[in-house]
Every structure is written in C-alpha cells, then in structure tokens.
Amino acid sequence: MNYAKPKVLVFRAAGTNCDKETVYAFEQAGATVDVIHINKLRESPDTIKNYQIAVFPGGFSFGDDIAAGKIFAVRMRHELGPQLNEFVESDKLILGICNGFQILVKAGLLPEPNIQGEYSQKVTLSDNDSGKFDDRWVWLKSFSNKCKFIPAGELIYLPIAHGEGKFIPRDNDVLAQLQANDQVVFRYVDENGRPGGFPINPNGSVDDIAGICDPTGRIFGLMPHPERHIMPTQGPHWTRLSRKSQSGGMKIFTQAVEYFG
Amino acid sequence: MNIWRIELSRTAQANDPHANGILHELKDFGIESVTSVRHSRIFLITSDAPKNQIDTVVNELLIDPVVELARVDLNAPPHHDTDSIEVHLLPGVMDPVAESTEFAIRQLGINVDQVRTARFYQFQGNISDAEKSLIASRILANECIEHVVFGSAGSQPPPEPHDYQFQLRHVPIRDLSDDQLLELSKKADLFLNLDEMRAIQNYFKTLDREATDVEIESIAQTWSEHCVHKTLKSDVEYRGPEGKKFFKNLLKSTIAKATRQLNKKWCLSVFVDNAGVIEFDDQHAVCFKVETHNHPSAIEPYGGASTGIGGVIRDPMGTGLGAKPIANTDVFCFANPDTNFEDLPKGVLHPRRVFKGVVSGVRDYGNRMGIPTINGAIWFDTRYLGNPLVYCGNIGLMPKDKALKADAKPGDYVVVLGGKTGRDGIHGATFSSGELTAQSDQEFSHAVQIGNAITEKKVLDVILQARDAAQGCLYHAITDCGAGGLSSAVGEMAEKLGAEVDLDKVPLKYKGLRYDEIWISEAQERMVLAVSPENWPKLKALCDSEDVDATAIGTFADHKKLILRYEGTQVAQIDMDFLHNGLPKSTRKATWSPKQLPEPPENSSIDLNDTLKKLLAHPNIASKEWVIRQYDHEVQGGSVVKPLTGIVNDGPSDASVVKPLLDSNKGLAVGCGLNPNFGQIDPYWMAACCIDEALRNVVAVGGDPKRCAILDNFCWDRCNNEEKMGTLVRASLGCYDASKAFGTPFISGKDSLNNEFVTDTGKRIAIPPTLLISAMAIVPDVRKSMTMDFKKPNSSVYLIGKTLPELGGSHYWMLQGFTGNSVPKVDFKSARAIFNKVHSLIRQRIIAACHDCSEGGLTVALAEMAFAGGLGAQINLTNLKSQSGITQSDVLLFSESASRFIVEVAPEKEQKFLAATQGLPICKLGNTQSEKSFIITDSTGTPLINESIDTLKTAWKTGIKM
C-alpha cells in the first residue's frame, strides 16, 4: 500500500492538553492529523484502522487521579484492546509523549505489547525523586538502532514537564532485557553526552532512561516533549547569539512520517 | 453494603518522595524525634460487588504493581504497630480522585456506590502526643477541610446528608429598627451597612411585603464590595498636597478616565466584560484579567489558590463569546517563611505552609488545565502574616469577531454547564468583603472551595467547540460563575432583561441543599450560558459526548425581574433595576499628606561587597526558581522568552514572551510591577513606579510600548477612615497620571479591600496598601525578542536612564531597617522616550542584552546579567558620577530610580548605538569579560565590589530556602 501522506490519529480525553502542538508537529512533518476523543472511539473502535500513526499526547488525562495516565490506560485495555492489538501487528507506529508514555506503559503497550487479557506491568513511571513537578530542559542521547522514530547517536535538547517521570523497571531482569533488546531509546545526559546525577537526570530514572521502544521499535514512549522544540524560538538559548541553533524534536516527527514514505 | 478499605503503600525497595517530603518538613518545623515516615494511599470503596471484582479494581486500576503493595480489608481497619495518623476529607469537600475513581470503576462495569480517599502516615521514633498533634495540625492536615484520626480509621460510611424538606423562609425586615437592621446584617453575614440595609427595608416597604431569605441574599451578593466595588466607585471629597478635589465615582474619574481619554482604537472591550480585550492581529483579540483570592488562601492555601487560578481562568472563558486561555500569571505577598512559630497569632497558618500550599494550588490547577504559567512575582513583608495576597491572572485568545460582550435574548434558556453545585463556597463574596479574624477559619470554612481542574478543562473543551461550531456559535452569551455563584452570574446576564430560574433543576453534588444555598453557592467550574431553544439540543449532545454536565435551569424573559422558584413555588421576585441600581451611593472623605519617616545616617563604612550578596539573597530579589519550575511554562508550545533564561536557564527574565498562534510570529510580552514599600512613602509614586516597572519589563523583552495595555489590582486594608481612603485616592491619581502620560490604557481591574487580620487579643494587622500592575504588550515579531543575560565577553555595558538620589523605599535601606522619604519619581516624558527607544534598539538588533533596574538598583541588575550569562563584568562609576552629579557610591549602586535599563552593546554595534541614543540619558558603565569576576570600581579605581559571579549566583539562588 502506498501511504504518500500518512494519517495520524491523536487521542484525546478529559485532561489531554498537548494535542494542538502535537498535531502541529506532525503537520509540519507532512502528515494529515485527526484528533479524536476516546468516547467517540468507544462508539466506533474500528476508526483507528484508518490511521498509520497513533499518538497519545501529553497532559493530565483524568487529572492523573489514581496515578498518571492510569484511567486512560485502563480504558484503552477495556475499550480498544483488540483494535490496538491489530494496529500493533500491522506495521504501524505508536508514539506516547509524557502522559502518553505513562499511558503506554500502564496499558501494556510497552515495553512489549500485551494489551489483551492478563498482563503484569513490567516498568512504571513514578513520582520524581524531587517529589515535585519539574519543568526544565534536558539533553537526551539516543541509543537504539531499532527505534523507528530516531536513529542511535543523536544528541537533542528538549523540555520535560512532569511530576511522575521516574522510570523504574520491576527488577534487574526487566532492565537487562530492555538493554539487551536494544529497547532503550533515550537516556538523560549532559550537553556532552555524558551521564550525571540531578539535574542531568531530572527525576532519578533508573539507568537514566527517558524513553523506550517495544522489541519491534514501532511503539515508542518518552517523557520529554519533542513537540515543544520544533522551531528555534521555542528553545531556551536562541537569543544567545554565539550558539548555533540546537537540535530539537522535529526529527522524531519527520522520521515517523518518512517510515511510510 | 460493604466498605472495602484498600491501603496502597510503597514497597521496601521503592523510594517514597512524598514521605521524604514530610520528613523534610518535620525537620524544618523543628521536630527531630521522627526517624522515618511511611505514607499510604487509602481508598474506601462502598460497593456490593463481590471480592473478585474488588480485586480487579485494585489490581487493574488502583495499584502501581512496580512500586506498590496493596492490602485489602473489609469493614475494619488493619492493626498497625507504629504511631500512625490518617487524614480524611470532611464530608462535602471536593475529592477529585474519588470522583475519577468512581467514574473509572463504573467504566470497568463494576458496581460502586461511593469512593472516598484518605492519606495514611506511619511514623518511627520516640514521638510525644504533643508532637503527634502538632504533626497532624501543622503539616499533614488542615482541619478546616480535613479530619484527622490518630491510628487508622474504621470504615464507617460518612454521615448521610439529610433530605431537604422545602420550606419558604421569610425575613421580616419592614419593622426593624436601625439596630436590628445592623444585627441582621451581621448575623446573616451580609456585610451591609446601615444605609444599605435601610434601602432594602424601604424596597420591601414599597412592595408591601416581607422579604424572603434568598431575596436578601441576592441583594447582599450583588451589593457586596467584592462584586460591585462600592468603595472605589464611591464619590470622594479629597484633601491633599495638590489641594481639594471632588471625585464623582473615584474609579471612573481616574483609572477609567485615562482609558477613555486615550481612546485607543485597538482597545476592543474595556471595563465592561469579565476581562479587558485588545486587538492581537487582524483576526484575533487577546483578553487579560487578574483577580485575587486572599481570604480563602489564608484559611486553606492549597484550595484557596487553586480555586483562585481556576476562577480567573473562567474570566477569559466567559469574555465575549469565550476565549481560549493561553497564559497564567501569579503574584504572591507572604510573610517571611522564616517566621518563628511562637510569633504566630492564633488562627494563622505558618507563612512557609501558606507559601507551599499556594504554590502547589496554582501548580496543580494551572498545569492540569494545560495553560503555561509564565509571569509572577513574590513580595515578603511581616504584615501579610494573617492575610497573604494571592493574585492570579489569565490571558485568553479569541477570534476578533467574537470578542465583544454579547447579550442573552428573551426566550433563551439559562444553562448551567460544568461542575455540580454543593455547599462549598457559600458566602465567598461577602466573606472577602470583611476582615479576617482569629475565628475566621472556623466561621468561614464553608467559604473555602476545592477545585477540580479536569472538570474545568472539560468545560473549556466543549465551550471552544460550541463557540466555533460549523453552524455558528451555539449560544448567545456566556459568563462565569464566580463570587456570588448563580446569583451573580444570572443576575448580571439578565440585568437588562430579566430571568426566571427553577432552583430545583440545578444539579447537586449531594442532597440536602436549601434553595437559597443553591442560589449563592460558589461551587467551582461552572459557566452560565444563554442558549436558544433550537440550539439547546446540539449543545446538550456535545456536552454529553464529553461527559460534561449541562442543564437548562430557567429562561431569560423580557420582564426586568428576577424570579426564582423551587418545586414550583416562587421564592423570590426582585426588580432588576433595584438589584443593580438600588445601592445607595455614598460620599466618602479622604485626606493625604506626606509623612516624614526616619532615614539612616550616612555611613561610609558599609561593606558594599557584602551588601550586594545580602541584596541578592533578599527574598524579594532572590531566585524564584523553586516556584517557577513547578509550573509548566511551556505547554501549548508558544514559549519564546521563558521566566528563567541564560546560559544554564536560571537567570531572571524581566517578562515572558509567548507566541499564541503556532503558525504566526506575532507574540505577547507579559510582565508586572509591584512595590508596596514605595507606597509607605507615597501611594502616588508607588502607582507611577509600578506602571513604569510593568512597562519596563515588557519593553525589555521586546514588547511594543505603544501597544501595551495594563490592569490594576488594588489590595488595601479597611478604607474606613479619611487617611486610609486618602491612600486609595493618591494611588488612583498616580494611576491616572502615569497611564495618560505613557499612553498606556487600563483595560480591566479589580480591588480587594478589608485585607487585615484581627488577632484573638483584638490587635489589627493591616497589610500595606499593595497595588499590582500587570502589563501585556504586543511583540511584533518574536524572532526579535530579547533576554537579559550577557551574551559575549568584551561587549560594552550601558545604562539608559537617569540615576537620582532616591534610596527611599529601596532594598538597600530596607536592609538597614529604614524606609526613608526619597521615593523614586517618574519623569514621564523622559521615560516614554526611553521606552520607545529601547524598543527600537531591540527591533533593530542593536543591543544584545537588556535588563531593567528594579529591586536592588543597578548593581543587582548588573550582577544578574553577569551570572545569567556566565560572564564577568568590569564596571567603573566615573561616568555615572559625572552624569548624575551624585558623589556617594552607595546611592549610585543601590538607588531604585525608575525608567532605567542596562544594555549590552557588541563592539561592532557601538557606533550605531551611540547614534541612535543621542539626546537620551545614557552612560557607559564598563564592559563584559570572560573572566568570571564581577568588579565595580569608583572613579579612583578603588574596587567597591569584587566578587566571583559564582558566589553572587549562589547567594541569589539560596535566598529562599524551601
């Protein structure tokens, strides 16, 4: 099939709030984008078949009441399980940003898809070690050769804005498997690409992990916000004349769209 | 019915940041006996579902299995060996998590009757009973909304609210004596004076009947200081240094008059709607409103501040046909967080707790709404101890053709949309119109509201869809439910028309509310819309599709009366004319004369190096990073100049710039000015300096001073005598003169009077008169915005503007314990020329950095520019001495003279800069350098200040320790 201009579905629910800028980023990358409320998808779940990329954007879905992304995730399992399963199996892409990453992890789409039936959560995103919501800019280095959204070896600068972003695997085996499978996509680093403590790793994430993908590299979740650094004036240093413009998040959207080129 | 008690606690391996935070706070409060804290989340689920379904709820919905363990008990609490404290919400207090949990359990197809949540804490250590009660009351719980159990609580159901049996209640008012009228006003919390009570009495005499309770309440709400601003709108006979003056309506003849006379065509809607509206571009308008939520925040900081921001967000949503909120602002005034516990009067929360609670409240509401919080300020003064100030602002963007206030049409339904109505927030409008006392926390706890941001976000989502519906806007008019609840919202919308409302149709959170409580409740997250019968089904369907409650509760009718019914019985009928125009006008007297305040003796032995570090660490000046980072200031993707800036993103921006449309480079600069210290000397110059500061801030980042609009927020104490009233007049005159002279119109404003606290021993602590000026200015092209950090070594550093011997009200003198008299004055003509020139220097990219001089004077500004840019500076005072004619170095270094900027000019731009600034007061101060030392020398070359920028930055970053 030829997807000249892939169609992107951006999920929306009560409390979703990064949908507009996420839509804009995908449009800039050349995609056609629809934003659909999950109540509508419950009525016609097969709608998602019309799309090539499904995106869970940032926000505070259902207030993050109970835990970040939890209610959204539970509803996905119960209302869209078979459809998401089919989506995952048909060479399509899923992206979760911030709250969207929390949803992917809690719905059983990451670290490997297990959206139907019994599942046990293998990783979580929990309260930042600081105990507080934190808005700050972080350097990220990409490590995975299989992630379809970004190649390995990139150093990019993005903002985080979350209170529950500490990546925690259930145990060492889970972590070892993620590493062995090349599923660690982003780690928090300094501007030279080296690891460090707070604030280089802003939330205490285990192994400095900021984003992971599934074993196919087609499902990707990350805590930082690539859609908030797609033009120079969004960056924090663009008024400093001596610095060249910093690499932001646009590549993630472009590469996702190009996957269907 | 079973009550399941689910306790979720962290596994031994998992870090518990919440418990760590409690432990940290215990140490802050001097409680050393606690060695460890554990924290659990409690869910109490009332349900007849079988155990396996409850297990499903726990395993699928409630627990995070990676970091938590669950314990499920039926009807009884488990036994815990350690000291433990459990905190429950009082019945009727909003519990968003419980609401969401109920919703989600039902989505799973499982029956649930009710969910409640609680927090459970276990403590290790040798803790005395006295300490336990301190921990509970000072750290874990606020007894005005919460209930503390020592040990763990049994799973009793909460007290069931009683059914309400309707009974119409009359208030015999016609035959009351003056004393009895005043007694009625006091007993019913009406906060009305004798003239006003008499006017009501006469009205009902004319009608030849007694009043009902809800009629009296409606009138009291409409006539409250909070809703009608009767002090600022009263006629005033004033005597001051400028002679005698009579003001017919003080507000109209000062602040609003300036706007009228300036008559800017880009001002689209001023002083008539919920927010002031200006043109943004050819297709869009922006509106701005700032409110205060002081009294609720004093009693319950978290709830007070979150509903403060939640409330002001609804103002733009209810302006014109509805705006999309694009930015929040917040400005706080607190007592010093280091205040001793022993110095706290009874009924006062510790300022550290107020500070933390207020910031958390703004954070949780603003972040959940997805609105960036981009500008603010914090001022500390002991007089805010019992009465902190919490200013919250919101800016909205809307299509230009939907910017004007629209009218309801006869026959339209009165539709209430959003949150359900409960007993929360009853008497908020009148409560804020009186002073706080040691008993206020008990008497007015029902005035405290807890917000639910997601309810408001859902309301916003459907309103913007209804506004932009393909077939045209689905409603004729919209307003928010704020102070005074439905009474104010419907009363205002129906002012020129009339309305009939069936109070029993209003959806309630729980049963048992009386009809009058329904009418005046200030429950949050509600909007009122006028919807034609043909559009109502469409709007209702839209709301249903996104789980938003919308109910038609009455109709607008062309009979100029407010008619209320309950279960078919009429409970009120008031003429709109009396409701809105019956308030007796009063004439107040006011006087003002300058006072002579003591000044410090000249002292040449002060260590200026040390003084600079102390100034940088002064909480008014010190970094507010602890606060700023807790706010999402980048959501919506429009952030251009961030509140924190510089090479490592931690320098203090003068103002923020946002770009509200992703595909346009037009932007908005948002800043503010506040300085109650100047007001101690002369409220006139406080007002002028605050306007000057707000303008300086927006100009420094690239805002166009010719396209700038401002807002006033007066927070005063009781204006019950001539002198107090005089300070209000004097500040209003300053506002008028500055607004006129700068050509900068006021577009909206608000006042909050009676900001004082009466202790249990009868001592009054009044706040200093505090005026906040908020400014927004158009940035023609955000790609030419400016930040304050030094960019490169070997640039020239210039001061633009005149430095005068004006240490009165300065932080330099504050450090020495003095206020003094030489308050900074604004030379309006020169200031206006400077602002216009700085704007053109920025647009032409002639300067590389720009920072305004405010608290701490030019030295603090220079130091901030240096450490924000990671560069040192070499400054010499020779030029400045000869330019200003001032010989004392400390005056030059720390005077807080107005209308000044420091700019960085790259060597290759210096000729252009000098040519462009001819005729302006400019002065070369020195240059930037890569060596990280900050050196200021006097004309002989002797170093006055020589410090590393890292040391200066550390002083600045550690001034506020939270």
Account of the protein in words:
The complex is a heterodimer of chains A (261) and B (962). With 261 residues, chain A is of the alpha/beta class. Chain A has a single domain, classed as Rossmann fold (3-Layer(aba) Sandwich), CATH 3.40.50.880. In chain A, 24% of the residues lie in helices and 23% in strands. Chain A is built from six helices and eleven strands. Chain A has helices at residues 19-28, 38-43, 70-89, 99-107, 172-180, 250-258; strands at 7-12, 32-37, 53-56, 93-97, 123-126, 134-142, 155-162, 166-169, 184-189, 209-213, 219-222. In chain A, strands 2-1-3-4-11-10-9-6-7 form a nine-stranded mixed beta sheet. Chain A has a two-stranded antiparallel ribbon with strand order 5-8. In chain A, helix 3 links the parallel strand 3 (53-56) and strand 4. The longest helix of chain A is centred in the N-terminal third of the chain and has 20 residues, at 70-89. Chain A is globular and about 50 Å long. The termini of chain A are close together. Helix content of chain B is 32%, strand content 26%. In chain B, strands 19-21-17-22-20-23-24 form a seven-stranded mixed beta sheet. Chain B has a seven-stranded mixed beta sheet with strand order 37-39-36-40-38-41-42. In chain B, strands 3-1-2-5-4-6 form a six-stranded antiparallel beta sheet. In chain B, a hairpin with a 4-residue loop joins strand 12 (276-279) and strand 13 (284-292). The longest helix of chain B is centred in the C-terminal third of the chain and has 21 residues, at 722-742. In chain B, 57% of the residues are buried. The mean pLDDT of chain B is 93. The interface between A and B is large, with 62 and 67 residues.
